[in-house]
Specification:
- By secondary structure, this protein is an alpha/beta fold.
- 32% of the residues lie in helices and 23% in strands.
- Helix 8 (188-205) links the parallel strand 7 and strand 8 (208-213).
- Helix 5 (126-139) packs across helix 7 (158-170) and helix 7 (158-170) runs parallel beside helix 8.
- The protein is globular and about 65 Å long.
- Bound molecules: adenosine-5'-triphosphate.
- The site of adenosine-5'-triphosphate has 16 residues, from strand 1, strand 2 and helix 1.
- Keywords: ATP-binding, Cell membrane, Membrane, Nucleotide-binding, Transport.
Length: 333
């Protein structure tokens, strides 16, 4: 296995012009996605997870500006000629979106949606593409795949549609799959099945996966490493076990406490994080969590702080980090 990460994001910024001013959606984010590994990206709604994914995939809104580096196997997608990067997106890097209802074409049968990419990008012939499509549907757990190929999206359940979306994303055998809240529209049991499917496919194929969710329980047990975002910046990153067992950033800690456990559901009310995200047009200069953090002092309001190592494969951007083991067991959620 090569040591070079499949994706290396360096100092990524994504700013969006709005009538109210410039939204700093992503600010100075650097992270790696290793080969054949799964990285979870977590944070509250509005923390910049989707914009980061969209910047990586070249799908930012029209009025957005992006800077930094997005190195896929060492080559910067942001500075690459348009034609070359269009080939990488879709073929070597694929994405699964939140809502399969909106991503699938309602008037095109499953077969064409599944085979289109492999015929166009891989030059696979019609009958071979059909055979591969059947295999893909089987891989993602769609029963009776031959019959499903003839279906239109509305003839499938929400869970089946999302499985088809995953099959489409896998069709060109990507090396990296980015899944942005892939189960939001589904009920809890189906959510788990789809999330477990993503992890299984990632492992079976030796593919890399970025799994984006506002819910820490979703990435616990399904990722090798995790990056916690807050208000456009990285708060903490490292091995999933280390970050969840010994969270160092006050935000990660608060987020863990606000994640329901079976225990919590039965007994105690959840401890929600008081306050809300700072204004993305005028974020504070220092740590962006300052206004909601019980441990903040003047030093936290100074510009920065930047990510610093607290252990091997564990980095945190916090002046007053949590000390001692204060993790929350998310197993079984
Ligand atoms: N099209 C847009 N135009 C302007 N600002 C936007 C746009 N989309 C998102 N934003 C802003 O960018 C910031 C980051 O949003 P983003 O959608 O990346 O967050 P997120 O963590 O993915 O949240 P969610 O889980 O709700 O999608 C937020 O302040 C959001 O309001």
């Amino acid at each position: 296995m090569s040591a070079e990460p499949v994706l290396r994001v360096r100092n990524l910024h994504a700013y969006i012009g709005t009538p109210r001013g410039v939204v700093r959606a992503v600010q100075d984010v650097s992270l790696d996605v290793d080969r054949a590994q799964a990285l979870g990206v977590v944070g509250e709604s509005g923390s910049g997870k989707s914009m980061m994914a969209r910047a990586i995939m070249g799908r930012l809104p029209a009025r957005a500006e992006c800077s930094g580096e997005v190195l896929f196997k060492g080559r910067d997608l942001l500075s690459m000629p348009r034609k070359q990067r269009a080939e990488i997106w879709g073929k070597q890097v694929a994405m699964v979106f939140q809502d399969p209802g909106r991503s699938l074409n309602p008037v095109v049968r499953v077969e064409r949606q599944l085979t289109e990419g492999m015929r166009r990008l891989l030059g696979v012939g019609r009958s071979e593409a059909r055979g591969r499509a059947v295999g893909l549907l089987r891989e993602v757990g769609v029963p009776d795949p031959e019959r499903r190929l003839r279906n239109y999206p509305h003839e499938l359940s929400g869970g089946m549609r999302q499985r088809v979306m995953i099959a489409i994303a896998l069709a060109c055998e990507p090396e990296l799959l980015i899944a942005d809240e892939p189960t939001t529209a589904l009920d809890v049991t189906i959510q788990r099945q789809i999330l477990d499917l993503l992890r299984r496919v990632q492992r079976d194929r030796g593919m890399s996966l970025v799994l984006i969710s506002h819910d820490l329980a979703v990435v616990a047990g399904r990722t090798d490493r995790v990056a916690v975002m807050y208000a456009g910046r990285l708060a903490e990153a490292g091995s999933t076990r280390l970050v969840f067992d010994t969270p160092r950033h006050r935000y990660t800690h608060a987020l863990l406490e606000a994640t329901p456990t079976l225990e919590h559901e039965r007994n105690t009310p959840l401890r929600l994080i008081p306050g809300s995200l700072p204004d993305p047009v005028n974020p504070p200069e220092g740590c962006r969590f300052t206004a909601r953090c019980a441990h903040a002092d003047d030093e936290c309001r100074d510009p920065g702080p930047s990510m610093a190592a607290v252990a091997a494969d564990h980095h945190v951007a916090c002046v007053r980090p949590v000390t001692g083991p204060e993790g929350v067991d998310l197993n079984g959620r």
